[in-house]
């Protein structure tokens, strides 16, 4: 059984490892503040990655990259005693993902296909459109993060990070179902669109 199939078979497990560290971050922040929450967030992220690897025998690219950024920016937050760094992390990660996807597309390579090809089968036009949309969406998330952390208190930013970003992302992902259906590759042995 491939790792991609294992991920599809365990959506609750995937959701728990994705959301678990964020929920811990929210609760610790509400009781002990942003610096304690950041430290616990770092530990929870490492634990989630370790558990995910133990179960699937691989780590997906996006959670791994995000985890590295959590450790770097969380470490800077604690070391320099400045919450700015943990607040900038989503902006930088989402901008990076958006620019990589759009840059790859400009170079003629829909990089999202490399991440999702074993899960979703699309024509080349479908991959281009999906990659473009996700690239723009990541940039949108970066802008939204900037607006929220610059204009609202830290507790509001933490709540939005936990309870705002995930629903927005899920709504966006669900809005792509029509594209996935329209450009689904019918014949995996035939022409790729």
Mean pLDDT: 87
- Computed Rg: 18 Å
Secondary structure tally, helices: 10
Largest sheet, if any? none
Let me know the number of strands.
Answer: 0
Domain count: the total is 1
Query: Which stretches are poorly predicted, pLDDT < 50 over at least 5 residues?
Result: 1-9, 188-193
Strand content bin:
under 5%
Beginning-to-end CA distance, first to last residue: 28 Å
Helix content class: over 70%
Order of helices and strands: HHHHHHHHHH
Shape: globular
Which class best fits the helix and strand makeup? mainly alpha
What does this structure look like?
α2 packs antiparallel against α3 and α2 (11-32) runs antiparallel to α8. This protein is mainly α. It starts with a helix and ends in an 11-residue tail after the last helix. The protein is built from 10 helices and no strands. It has one domain (3-182). It is globular, with a radius of gyration of 18 Å.
């Amino acid at each position: 059984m491939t790792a991609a199939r294992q991920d599809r078979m365990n959506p609750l497990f995937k959701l728990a490892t994705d959301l678990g560290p964020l929920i811990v971050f929210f609760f610790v922040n509400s009781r002990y503040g942003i610096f304690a929450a950041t430290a616990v967030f770092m530990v929870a992220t490492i634990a989630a990655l370790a558990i995910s690897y133990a179960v699937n025998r691989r780590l997906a690219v996006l959670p791994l990259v995000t985890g590295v950024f959590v450790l770097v920016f969380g470490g800077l937050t604690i070391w320099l005693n400045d919450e700015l760094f943990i607040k900038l992390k989503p902006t930088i990660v989402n901008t990076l993902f958006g620019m990589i996807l759009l840059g790859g597309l400009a170079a003629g390579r829909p990089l999202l296909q490399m991440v999702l090809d074993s899960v979703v089968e699309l024509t080349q036009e479908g991959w281009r459109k999906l990659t473009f949309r996700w690239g723009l969406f990541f940039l949108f998330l970066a802008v939204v993060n900037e607006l929220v952390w610059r204009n609202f208190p830290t507790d509001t930013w933490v709540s939005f990070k936990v309870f705002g970003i995930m629903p927005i992302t899920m709504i966006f992902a669900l809005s792509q179902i029509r594209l996935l259906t329209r450009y689904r590759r019918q014949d995996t042995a035939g022409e790729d669109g």
